[in-house]
Amino acid sequence: MSKVGRQTWKFSRGASVLATGTVAGTVEGKGPLGTDFDLRISDDHFGEPSWEKAEQKLFESAAKIALDKVSLSDGDLDLIVGGDLNAQLSSFYFGLRAYSTPLIGTYGACSTVTESLAVAAMAIDSNNVNYALVGTSSHNSTAERQFRYPTEYGVQKPPTAQRTVTGSGVVVLGSKPFGEMRITHATIGKLVDMGISSPWEMGAAMAPAAFDTIQAFFRESGMKPKDFDCIATGDLGYIGHELLAEMFRDAGMDLGERLTDCGMLIYDREQPEVYSGGSGGACCSLVTFGHLLDNLSSGVWNRMLVCATGALLSSVTVQQGETVPGICHAVAFERVSAENTDGGTKS
């Protein structure tokens, strides 16, 4: 691995994508990507007595699905990296407490999945890890109770609000270059605070952070937008997405139709109570692992840049009148061609 510029890591071999596991909630399963997910639950309680236990089961189930696809078990893993939106990462830790694998909990709000992918890819590329499990989860009802603000159910929400995704997305990464896809770069984001204080305008709060990180990636990697078939942000929603597209147009860099957002893709805009689109820790992981990677593995795309975005607020900071800083971490995925399996990344 080499550091390119101030924020970007270029992996010498990359981390191979071996398998994914996705479990979607009821609303997500009825959305336009529903058939792309491995499991669609029919009740968001998922057979559990509390929303929190349901989210833990989402994480546990997605992990099992991914591992079963490549006939791996807990004992084969060297590292688990991931997180969620709940206090003390309880869904991550409690959902995977049956595992004996070393694990690192990460938190970047809804940017946690690419933060976790960057950490795991670095561990693999440095020859310290052979197999890593990476994932995130979220649940609409646990987020409404713990993370979102106001927390009272029944509060009328404005059109700028977003719906927290219920689900979990997990990926198994490996060190050997035999996977169809691999992670080649990661750009670690910086805090960007534009002074937005409304918790209902997270897309607007996160869009400047996405702009900053994506610019840093292209500046430091030497690659250009035309080198990518898809540039997907994590959960800006319709409003944040349009703001980001406008920022790039104003900067003389029109990304066109290759720029999309997981928060827009996961729901049909006509579905009830999805507002400006999806959000939450599982928004980017479900769409990326359940849908976007399929376009790479099938050969429709050759490269994509996934840029998960996070609004770093809490109910406490909102009540204290703080602004909402945004952050975005980007990870580049590449399809491995038959002539490029020696572990080196393409230029």
Folded structure, characterized:
Strands 1, 2, 3, 4, 5, 6, 8, 9, 10, 11, 13 and 14 form a twelve-stranded mixed beta sheet that branches. This protein has a two-stranded parallel ribbon with strand order 7-12. Helix content is 32%, strand content 24%. It is of the alpha/beta class and 347 residues long. The protein folds into two domains: 2-161 and 163-173, Peroxisomal Thiolase, Chain A, domain 1 (3-Layer(aba) Sandwich); 179-335, Stage V sporulation protein AD (Peroxisomal Thiolase, Chain A, domain 1, 3-Layer(aba) Sandwich). α6 (202-221) crosses α7 (237-250). β2, α1 and β3 (39-40) form a beta-alpha-beta unit. The protein has helices at 26-29, 51-69, 90-95, 112-125, 140-147, 202-221, 237-250, 262-265, 281-297, 315-319; strands spanning 2-4, 8-24, 39-40, 79-83, 103-105, 131-138, 163-164, 167-174, 181-187, 230-233, 259-261, 278-279, 303-311, 326-335. It is globular and about 50 Å long.
Entry keywords:
347 residues; alpha/beta; Peroxisomal Thiolase, Chain A, domain 1; twelve-stranded mixed beta sheet; two-stranded parallel sheet; 10 helices; 14 strands; disordered C terminus
Short description:
The protein is of the alpha/beta class and 347 residues long. Helices cover 32% and strands 24% of the residues.
The CATH class label of the largest domain is Alpha Beta
Overall body shape: globular
**Which residue ranges are poorly predicted, with pLDDT under 50 across at least 5 consecutive positions?**
338-347
Question: Could you state the CATH homologous superfamily of the largest domain?
Answer: Stage V sporulation protein AD
The number of E-state strands comes to: 14
Protein structure class: alpha/beta
